[in-house]
């Protein structure tokens, strides 16, 4: 190794060693409301920020310094004082009320994924999720929705991603030939909103668990939205509604192959000839060595679900076991790929 290579590899080493602190400092600044305060009031001194957010001055000064080093905040000097302000990046993604805000995602990762990740070694040893180590129900969605507040937070989390990649994903195929779309496990309706925006003649029904539908109706989709409606049900137990196209967005990665085939078989049986299923989610490379985010997500799925991220061949095998013979994949410029299979 020459000296440039060695310097680079030490930098990589440091990032891997302290990567969790990149996340934790960002989560903490989000949780304390640093970006929200600075967005509404403009640049402030560390003393004022600490006072407004009810923290120690010393702790806040250290956190602000870390955020500047992470390029989440910038500094300016005014009247001998250092003032901290949001960068464009933080205003766009970390300020809670920005249309592209990922603040809900930060909260979820901090309170849930980060906590589960403490047990990653056990999950890898045992090859199964670690829900038993946490209070509350042990099956996946009873656990996720263990309280009213958790349910709402998870639905906020689900909506977050769509603000980043929703348009690209929904535009990957021309869906105008499917006037009635059913979004199975459609959560708070972010995908449904993208669909009706892009396809003026389509209607979307969101099929999800009853307690999710209640929250979605109350907080996420207004009653005036005539082209979106809701259906309560369990897609492993109840008959599926009629539709021209069924969407499964980030659903299959929650379940093992058997359950995925069960669900896709129901979709195939209910689907009319010419209709189809649109699978949206991350796809792992065939050699299983990337992309990095998909590999991370497979570990996250291992930690708290029954599923994993799959390769295209694996997804095609599930589709064909259910009866769908032909599937086409479109890559997008986002972490999510789209696969359309027609009956
Ligand atoms: N499709 C949404 C998206 O991409 O934003 C949400 C994906 S989330 C990972 C999985 C969804 O499946 C949740 O909304 C969950 O409530 C729903 N779900 C889980 N089990 C279900 C079941 N048995 N029947 C119906 N929906 C279910």
Topology record:
Blueprint: H1 3-32, H2 34-41, E1 44-45, H3 46-53, H4 57-69, E2 73-78, E3 81-86, H5 88-93, H6 103-117, H7 120-126, H8 140-144, H9 148-170, E4 180-184, H10 190-198, E5 203-208, H11 210-220, E6 228-232, E7 245-249, H12 257-270, E8 276-281, E9 283-284, H13 292-304, E10 310-311, H14 312-322, E11 326-330, E12 337-342
Parallel strand pairs: 4-5, 4-7, 5-6, 7-8, 9-10
Antiparallel strand pairs: 1-3, 2-3, 8-12, 11-12
Features:
single chain; 343 residues; alpha/beta; Arc Repressor Mutant, subunit A; Rossmann fold; three-stranded antiparallel β-sheet; 12 strands; binds S-adenosylmethionine
Structure description:
- Helix content is 50%, strand content 16%.
- The strands form 3 sheets. It has a 7-stranded mixed β-sheet, with helices on both faces. A 3-stranded antiparallel β-sheet has the order 1-3-2. It has a two-stranded parallel ribbon with strand order 9-10.
- Helix 1 (3-32) packs across helix 6, helix 3 (46-53) packs across helix 4 and helix 12 (257-270) crosses helix 14.
- The protein folds into 2 domains: 3-93, Arc Repressor Mutant, subunit A, CATH 1.10.10; 164-342, Rossmann fold (3-Layer(aba) Sandwich), CATH 3.40.50.150.
- With 343 residues, it is of the alpha/beta class.
- The longest helix is centred in the first third of the chain and has 30 residues, at 3-32.
- It has helices spanning 3-32, 34-41, 46-53, 57-69, 88-93, 103-117, 120-126, 140-144, 148-170, 190-198, 210-220, 257-270, 292-304, 312-322, and strands at 44-45, 73-78, 81-86, 180-184, 203-208, 228-232, 245-249, 276-281, 283-284, 310-311, 326-330, 337-342.
- The chain contains 14 helices and 12 strands.
- The chain binds S-adenosylmethionine (SAM).
- S-adenosylmethionine is lined by residues 141, 158, 185-187, 190, 208-209, 212, 234-236, 249-251, 254.
């Amino acid at each position: 190794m020459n000296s440039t290579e060695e310097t680079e590899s030490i930098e990589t080493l440091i990032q891997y060693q302290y990567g969790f602190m990149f996340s934790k400092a960002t989560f903490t600044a989000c949780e304390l409301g640093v970006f929200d305060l600075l967005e509404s009031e403009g640049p402030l001194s560390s003393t004022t920020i600490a006072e407004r957010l009810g923290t120690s001055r010393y702790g806040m000064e250290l956190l602000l310094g870390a955020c500047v080093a992470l390029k989440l905040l910038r500094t300016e000097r005014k009247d001998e004082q250092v003032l901290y302000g949001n960068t464009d990046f933080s205003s766009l993604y970390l300020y809670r009320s920005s249309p592209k805000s990922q603040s809900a995602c930060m909260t979820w990762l901090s309170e849930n994924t980060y906590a589960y990740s403490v047990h990653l070694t056990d999950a890898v040893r045992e090859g199964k999720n670690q829900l038993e180590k946490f209070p509350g129900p042990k099956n996946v969605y009873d656990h996720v929705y263990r309280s009213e507040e958790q349910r709402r937070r998870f639905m906020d989390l689900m909506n977050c991603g769509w603000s980043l990649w929703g348009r690209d994903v929904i535009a990957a195929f021309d869906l105008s030939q499917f006037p009635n779309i059913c979004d199975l496990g459609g959560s708070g309706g972010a995908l449904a909103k993208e669909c009706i925006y892009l396809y003026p003649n389509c209607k979307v029904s969101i099929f999800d668990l009853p307690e999710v539908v209640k929250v979605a109706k109350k907080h996420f989709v207004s009653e005036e939205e005539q082209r979106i409606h809701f259906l309560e049900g369990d897609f492993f137990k109840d008959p599926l509604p009629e539709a021209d196209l069924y969407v499964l967005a980030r659903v299959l990665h929650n379940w093992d192959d058997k359950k995925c085939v069960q669900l896709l078989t129901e979709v195939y049986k209910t689907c009319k000839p010419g209709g189809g299923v649109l699978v949206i989610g991350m796809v792992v490379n065939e050699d299983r060595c990337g992309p990095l985010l998909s590999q991370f997500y497979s570990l996250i799925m291992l930690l708290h679900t029954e599923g994993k991220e799959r390769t295209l061949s694996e997804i095609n095998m599930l589709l064909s076991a259910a009866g769908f013979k032909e599937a086409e994949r479109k890559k997008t410029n986002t972490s999510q790929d789209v696969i359309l299979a027609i009956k």
